[in-house]
Amino acid sequence: MARFDEFREANERYAASFDEGDLPMPPARGVAVLTCMDARLHPAKFLGLELGDAHVIRNAGGRVSEDAIRSLVISERLLGTEEIVVVHHTDCGMMTFGNEDLTAKIKEDLGVDATGRDFLPFSDLEQSVRDDVETLRNSDLIPDDISISGAIYDVRSGELREVVRD
Ligand SMILES: [Zn+2]
Fold it and tell me: What would the pLDDT profile of 51-60 be if each residue is shown by its tens digit?
């Protein structure tokens, strides 16, 4: 709980000077970003996002999982976003294991059989971006008028490189 206590202290300072409580719910820039949970990624900073600008959906790898699609559909249908940007990154932890490895570790650590569960690891970074953009394009829940692009963020240089442009 130590971190939680630190967070509460930090939040007291944040809230003391907070003055952006009147922002509308729909993202001002009409975009949803899907990216990795990696601690070295600060999407708001490397994409120039201000509070209220965008939906940022994060999971392990920034993959187009069923739950990512759930969030994107809500973002588009209910909150007016019209563009999706998928951002994967260099040195991603998702390239360090396979489903069999994690399934074995879960069995060893937890005694639970996770056979058949896909944790969506990948071995080719650029291909993973292309695959996820393609999955979105092929989803009947994401209509053709939604713009979809894909990029790779470099954790060493801070640069964003285009992989797929709509
Ligand atoms: Zn990652």
Answer: 999 999 999 9
